[in-house]
Every structure is written in C-alpha cells, then in structure tokens.
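Methods — Computational structure assignment.
A single polypeptide chain was analysed. Its primary sequence is given first, followed by the predicted tertiary structure written as structure tokens.
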Amino acid sequence: MLTFLGKRLLQLVPTLFFVSVMIFVLQHLLPGDPALTIAGEERDPAVLAQIRAQYHLDQPLPQQYLAWVTGVLHGDLGESIRMKESVRNLILAKLPVTLQLAVMAIIIGLSIGLPAGVVAAVRKDSAWDYAASVLALWGRSTPAFWFGILLIFLFSVKLDWLPASGYVRPSEDLLRSLASTIMPAFVLGNVAAAALMRHTRSAMLDALSSDYVRTARAKGLSERAVILKHAMRNALTPVITVGALELGEFLSGTVLTEQIFSIPGVGKLIVDAVFNRDYATVQGVVVATATIYVTLNLIADLLYVLVNPRLRS
C-alpha cells in the first residue's frame, strides 16, 4: 500500500508542473497589458514602469515563471493585481462557498444516480430501465445555464419559494444558506446524477452476470443480499472514479452556474480575474484547483483498494 501511495504521489509532481507551465504561458498569450489595467487613466511612462517592476512584468518570461513558482512552493501564490490582496487569502475566502455547493451537488447526484443505476440494471429492459436512460440523457444534454434560468423562473419568479440569486453563509443562517444554494446545487447534481447512473448501471450489469453472484444465488441468499452485499460492492469501483471526477470538477469552479445564481465562489473569482488581466489570481486559482483535482483522484485510487480487496496485491 505504501509503495502504491508513493508511486501515485510521484506521478502528481510532473502533472502539477505541466499545469503550472501551461497556465503561465497561456495567461501571458492573452492580449492586453495588465500594467495598463492597473494604471487606469494614468498612462505616465514612469508609473507604468514602476508597476511593471513591482509585479515583475519587465522581466523575461522564464524569470517571471521562476519567481512565481518559487513563491508557490513556499505557499505564496502572489498578490491580486486588481484587488491588492493575497491570492491565497482570496482563494481561502471563496473556496468554502464552492465547497458547500460542490458537496450539496454530489450528494444530490449520488442520491439520484446510484439508486437509478441499480434499479436500471436489476430491471434491465423494463420501463424502469428506459426511464433511467431518459433521465441520464436529460442530465447530460441539458445546458446548465438554461436549466438554471428555468429553475429561477419556476421557484423564484412564479412560486416565490427560493431566492433567485445571492449567497448566505451557513454560519449566518443555515436555512437561508441552504435556500440560496439548493437550486445551483441541483443544476450541478443533475449532471452528476446522469454520469453516475450510466456508470452504475454498466458496472452492476457486469457484476450481476459474474460467477460470484451466481454462486451467492445458488447458496440461497436473498436477492436483496445478493444485490447490495455482493454485486453493488464490486460495482462501486468505477462509480468512485466518476464521483471523484465530478466533485473535482465542481471544486474547480462551476463558472456558468455561479454566474447565473451570483454565487461568489471560485468560478466567479477566476472569471473576474481573466477579464481584468489579473495574472496572479488566474494562475493561483488554476494551480490550487488542479492540486485539489489530482488529490481527489489519489483518494479515489486509495478507495479502490479499500472497496476491492483483490487490488491490494
């Protein structure tokens, strides 16, 4: 187990290095000069030169990258050009909002996708199976922005049950916080449920046709025990992968959903940073979310071993 964990940790290093190089280079290929953005109406050459020197914009790109990545390795993601605040503090302030939204979304996705996938596999080619397939098709093909606007129109405009936009922290008012995030969480959970349902159904069909399931049935075990204790446990491996990827995607910042519902999360932060040529914020957010993403994949790999003892060898 320790050898496996060590190998996976070593694989993370080149991945994060490649991500850091790509985002740094691509960010600097965008048109526009951040020094002009900071200066605003003040276009005095001396002021522009001072700004470029302060943010290392007057140095060659390799030197800029080296200075930035050295700071990252020491926990310093730089300073936001636009907000004059530490990028690390900005991320730490926005991440709990996105984390709440992501956790709620993945809970909704699991609550819908797992039971639907199991029922679809057990009742293969039945009306339940076709209904679950339609649900999966709906989830994967429905645009998030359209579904979000539809929910706002129904539950906020017509029924006046939920707030159309905004965010309330759980520490301030838990019920209002849930009310402000349930619609965007359902929009994201709808997508996750579709992916989880399809993979659960496929994995369950393979498990139900396996030898150990036939042996369990031959021993006289109830169908409930066969499905839940034998087939479903072995079918969880691909589901863990999909769940980790979906959660990582949500934590990376759900740009459209956060924009539609005015949720002040990581997605909105990076959109504002791109429009304002805020190099340090974009780079810091991408590196932080990439680290979260690969860490979740590592946790998923470790869960494989716990769920399936055959992989421990």
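Note: Residues 87-122 form the longest helix (36 residues).
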